[in-house]
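Readers of this paper often ask what the protein records in our data store actually look like. Below, we set out a record of this kind in full and without editing:
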Amino acid sequence: MSMDDSQRNSFVLQIVNMLENDKVSLDEQDPKILQKYQKFASNQLEMEDSDAAEIVNEAFLYLKMQHSTDIDPVKEGDRFAAGFS
C-alpha cells in the first residue's frame, strides 16, 4: 500500500491514541503487546505487515519525542527503525 505523508501521519496518530488509551509504556518491548497494534494496523488500516510494524514504531517514536525535550530525532529514529531523510 502506498500512502502519502498525510495518510501516514493519520495512521500514526490512530496508533498513538490507542497506545495512550491503553497506557502502554513508551519503552514497551513485549512482542505480544506490540503485535496487538501491528495487527490493528494490518487489519483495520489495511496495510502490509511490514508497513504496520513501521507505523507502530513511528507511533512510539512520536510519543517519546512528545514527552521529552532531550531526544534527538535523528539519533532516536534509528532505535525505532524510523527513517528521517
